[in-house]
UniProtKB/TrEMBL annotation:
Family indicated by similarity: Belongs to the PBP/GOBP family.
Protein name per UniProt: Uncharacterized protein LOC114341597
Leader peptide range in chain numbering: 1-20
Gene: LOC114341597
Molecular functions per Gene Ontology: odorant binding
Domain of life of the native organism: Eukaryota
Main location class: secreted
InterPro entries: Odorant-binding_protein, PBP_GOBP_sf
Alphabetic keyword roster: Secreted, Signal
Length: 239
């Protein structure tokens, strides 16, 4: 039954295209921040690296963020790319880039912007390792299509919309505004687009908290995750 609902609404969902991701969606930012923080802790605290290389402790599983649905899927997608992403983190944000091991200052605007640009480079590096991004940083459409099909192959509730999700994400990537940094935004746009469409296409029986989910979806529907700008209130009448 839910497949019919999904199929009927998917066109409306995919029309809401996000042309670029500018690190302004709080839900996805938390996932990114955790990844970067975990890497930096591994870099600066050797005991963290030892624990990371050991098998995951069943009593202390990795933190999963509250989503509309697909928490296990999102975790799996990130876990499957852990090795290649870790290599790219070390290459882009590792000791050669920061020889003095100076921790990131979370309150410094310049540092935040540099971090964002480096994360674009991490995802570009990862995409190149997975053969979906070319040497110039551009997505390779056919390879990308096959890659996402493989990632979503076992997700039954996305089966009917998988092709439209891929087509929509390729359109987002093509139309994305160019990054001002040295790396292109194709990898980042792709990551956020897939995340967004998984959340917007959750069937009812997969949603655990409908109130939370509707608020999250509203944030995802807003252009580039930016808050809607409300008109100013009317002036107070003169006394």
């Amino acid at each position: 039954m839910y497949k019919i609902v999904i199929f009927a609404t998917v066109s409306a969902v995919l029309i809401l295209s996000v042309n670029a991701y500018e690190f302004n969606n709080p839900d996805y930012n938390r996932i990114i921040a955790d990844e970067i923080d975990n890497f930096e802790r591994e870099l600066y605290v050797p005991s963290v690296r030892t624990r990371r290389e050991a098998p995951e402790d069943e009593k202390c599983p990795p933190r999963k963020h509250k989503l509309c649905c697909g928490e296990e899927l999102i975790h799996k997608l990130h876990h499957d790319k852990k090795d290649s992403r870790s290599e790219c983190f070390k290459q882009i944000m590792g000791k050669e880039d920061n020889p003095n091991n100076i921790p990131h200052d979370p309150f410094d605007c310049k540092s935040i912007e540099e971090r964002q640009n480096k994360f674009l480079c991490v995802l570009q590096c990862e995409g190149q390792k997975n053969n979906i991004i070319d040497d110039d940083g551009n997505i390779k459409p056919e390879e990308y299509r096959k890659y996402i099909q493989t990632q979503l192959a076992d997700v039954e509730y996305l089966a009917d919309v998988q092709d439209k999700i891929i087509a929509g994400c390729l359109a987002d990537i093509k139309n994305a505004s160019k990054s001002s940094g040295k790396c292109k935004s194709d990898g980042m746009v792709s990551e956020f687009c897939v995340f967004k469409n998984i959340q917007l296409n959750c069937p009812e029986d997969q949603i655990k908290d409908k109130v939370f989910c509707e608020k999250m979806r509203e944030r995802l529907r807003q252009e580039n995750g930016r808050p809607m700008v409300l008109p100013p209130p009317p002036p107070h009448p003169k006394a």
